[in-house]
Amino acid sequence: MNPFDLSGKLALVTGATRGIGLGVARAMAEAGAGIILVGRDQGYLERSAGELRQVTDSVHTACFDLLETGKISPWFEQLCAKIRSPDILVNSAGINRRGEAINLTLDDWNEVIAINTTAVFEISRSFARARIAEGKGGRIINIASLMTAAARSGISPYIASKGAIGQLTKAFAVEWAKHGILVNAIAPGYIDTDLNKSLIADPAFDQWVKGRCPLGRWGTPADIAGPAVFLASSAADFVTGQVIYVDGGWLATF
Predict the structure, then answer these.
(1) Residue 98: burial class (beta carbons within 10 Å; 0-12, 13-18, 19+)
(2) Rounded to an integer, what distance in angstroms lies between the CA atom of residue 86 and that of residue 80?
């Protein structure tokens, strides 16, 4: 018996067209899960779905802009009616706005908080409502950040949003444990994704990351995918309310 087998499960993954979201979706598909890919660009969604259909036939796409936070609940209800309620929710969608706090606009702040925190709150409770109504448990996996526990200059909205995700994960875990809904977060360190391309292209920053990280490299989406499969599987039946740092040892040193 394989405790990491996700056969028969359906996972909804936001931010699933690239980077961490796509990596997690691919790993869950390889573990046997059906996948609902959520993104705001239909073209990217179809490309990603094509990749995953080499692994499984059970791939659905749902084009939706999570910035429209007030529309998440009815959209999610319609999605469940069309397909079914997912067993697993992976909140991977995220954005960043870089700049000193005194120079950022309020719109910058509001957009980051809307996507990175408010959308997670709204889609998670939509998921929970559906599972509770059906009398079923479930798994929620939030993608937090190294910035859930640390900070650096120039990304204050992002830091605030990911700090909130750490606490929201614990709040949901406590509130929904009685319904069999387990809620955890994975906090990646510096990962080689499109979100970080400008940082990777900066030789000084690239060397700083590699020198600061005990494992001496940037992480990859595959480094996050394994822990995500674990948290979604029966191997993690007694794990909830945790923020697991997958950072190459970053927080263990100074």
Answers:
(1) middle
(2) 7
Report d(CA 66, CA 205) in Å as an integer. 30
Q: How many residues does the chain have?
A: 254
- C-alpha count within 13 angstroms, C-beta hemisphere, residue 102: 0
Read off the pTM: 0.96
What is the CB neighbour count within 10 angstroms for residue 75?
Answer: 18
For 163, the token pair is 């700090």
10-246 has which fold?
Rossmann fold (3.40.50)
Per-domain boundaries in the chain: 10-246
| Nearest 10 degrees: Cα torsion 193, 199, 200, 202 | 160
Q: pLDDT by residue (tens digit) across 142-183?
A: 999 999 999 999 999 999 999 999 999 999 999 999 999 999
Is there a contact between 40 and 90 (Cβ–Cβ < 8 Å)? no
The residues annotated as belonging to the active site are 158
What is the SS3 assignment for 13?
strand
The answer to whether 108 and 160 are in contact (CB under 8 A) is: no
Question: What are the DSSP calls for 169-192, one per residue?
Answer: HHHHHHHHGGGTEEEEEEEE-SB-
Query: Helix (H) and strand (E) counts for the chain?
Result: 9, 7
DSSP state of 148: G
Strand, helix or coil for residue 60: strand
Query: What is d(CA 193, CA 162) in angstroms, rounded to the nearest whole number?
Result: 17
